[in-house]
Amino acid sequence: MNSIHPSAIITGDVTMGTGNTVGPLAVITGPVSIGNGNWIGTGAVIGAPPEVRSWEHPTDSLAMSSGNGIVIGDRNVIREYAQVHQGWKGTTRLGDDLFVMNQVYIAHDCVLGDRITLASSVLLAGHVEIGDNANLGLGAAVHQSRFIGAGAMVGMGAVVTRDVPPFAKSFGNPARLHGVNAVGMSRLGIDDDTVTALRLAYEANDLTRSGLEGLRTRESVRPLIERWLERAAH
User: Fold this and answer.
1) Any catalytic annotation for residue 108?
2) Which fold has domain 3-181?
3) Where are the domains of the chain?
4) Are 101 and 156 in contact (CB under 8 A)?
5) Active-site entry in 85, 108, 127, 143
6) What is the mean pLDDT of residues 123-127?
């Protein structure tokens, strides 16, 4: 069963698994698919129309369905007054085990992996992609269509205008690369030799295929490096 506060508004094509909690005054507007065991806080808005100037907004009801869909996985925490907007050209997607703090803004067509932490007031513009286990600090802002690699750490108040590679530390305005998130890699069980190899590549500022070639043989990070190189090729 789900626990839904009487003051919450759920309208349109919304499907929901089991074990979900929806708090007071939350608004969920379909098309939205929500998995199991999610916690959605007071005043959260999931399914607002994409904030695109050319989008034809509904006129007969603020809660009317308008957008290309949101898919939310399992065991996510979406705190008070966070916003997740409908897809525009595709679908907005959130994976599993995310911790989304209060007043976070997730715009249209964002794709978020698993076990991501978004601290309070993080702002994600449209089409942002974030890999598994990434952490974004309080008030960080990410420019549209940017990529943040798995395990990356983005500092408080950072303004991200360029892609952030996997397991990088990035902070400042504009955000710049400041080495490897060694603590995060260690917590994920990645061996010291791999941490050192990645650190040396980042210190050399060589994030090309040739610079990262040695890391492609290390199973613990190979898929992440491949995804980074695939992204960089476009």
Assistant:
1) yes
2) UDP N-Acetylglucosamine Acyltransferase; domain 1 (2.160.10)
3) 3-181
4) no
5) 108
6) 98
